Structure prediction request, 195 residues.
Amino acid sequence: MKFITLGPTGSNHEHVTQNYLDFHGIAGKASVALAVDFEEGAKAVLNGDADFLIQCAVHPATMATVAKYLNGLFVVDTFISPSQDLAVIHRRDATRPDTLAVMKPTLDYTDASRWARIQYVDTVAEVSRGLLEGKYQAGLGFVSIAQKHPELLQIDEFIGTVDDAWIVYGRTKVSGGKLLAWRDSPAAAIYQEMV
Prediction:
């Protein structure tokens, strides 16, 4: 069994996919492949080169991926997962950085008005790697990169994890034309408590 998600190595998509496999007890029985984009990931599933695709529901490419439904790519599961810890990080050798490197969907996690310029980057993993390599002086990246390299990087603003909705796609339609939901979910308990 093969799952595919957005790379590069160290991406939040890879992290969450691995946690999803661990949750289902299939981590040792399933592999994870990384795609350069969701078009490549969707094609891999549709061509049978992968069995399932995992995507964060707020990713800018989600609507285009969902549209692949007409070609045989179906939503087979959804779940909620925290991200890796995030922070605004700067290089210690940077004096007053005025540009923030950020993946567009994460920009609202901080006060963007503090920066003269915003530089959009495709993934948080790329921001993190770019900070380490000196490509960016400041960015919204993974806390773990700053923790691994405290001599080079400093955390300016700890953001923490963000709970996101995630979508799993496959080639088998599972809805049967009806609503699929978890009656014993934590949200269902809240609903029952309120009525």
